[in-house]
Amino acid sequence: MLPIGSAGTEPAERADAARNRQLLLDAAQQLVREQGADGLTMDALAKRAGVGKGTVFRRFGNRTGLMRALLDHSDRKFQGAFMFGPPPLGPGAPALDRLVAFGRARLLDIEVEGELHRAAEIGEGNDRYAGAPYGLLKAHVSLLLRDAGARGELPLLADGLLAVLAAPMVMHQMNVLGYTRGQIGDNWEAFVRRIVE
After folding, report:
1. Within this chain, do residues 45 and 79 fall inside the same structural domain, yes or no?
2. pLDDT tens over the chain, length 197 residues
3. Are residues 169 and 72 in the same domain?
């Protein structure tokens, strides 16, 4: 599997450009965590990062490009954790344990950066399901389902499981219905066990 966004066509980034990009993405993450996705504007990011607004536009093009880059940044961290990190999320644990850990880790991600995920999921529309980030998550969940002995149409089961982790739904459950991340995680585990066992 290739890392999210790596198609082999992107030129290598200079070290100073990579540092500047990281600085901007870190500042953008802080803004989202403090003010929600609506608080992330090009002006606010430039001010927070201590750079000119033109620098932000040159780097990301527009707010949509910035949101995509920020979500890609978050997704790459998550991808690294489930592909190469320690068990139970990473390799080395039984498939069922990895599935449970996958859901719980994703819920933590949504609790911390939910507005970003929600904005990206709503903004991408139908393209979300055809894109590389979703495709990688679906392939990973499908493989774990297969390894755990699940029966049925594994891609459909993977879509169903990933729908349980959709940011808009999880945020509704937390912010409107009052469920805790732990309760939602327990529900995820029960759901996964019913499918696999």
Report:
1. no
2. 444 444 444 456 678 777 888 889 888 888 887 887 778 889 999 999 988 888 899 898 888 788 878 878 788 888 989 999 999 999 999 999 999 999 999 998 888 777 777 766 665 554 677 777 789 999 999 999 999 999 999 999 999 999 999 988 999 999 999 999 999 999 999 999 999 98
3. yes
C-alpha separations of 178 from 41, 65, 87, 172, 182 in Å: 29, 33, 30, 8, 12
Distance CA 126, CA 102 (A): 24
What global pTM score does this model have? 0.73
Q: Is 113 found in the same domain as 78?
A: yes
- Cβ atoms within 10 Å, residue 119: 22
CATH number for the domain harbouring residue 33:
1.10.10.60
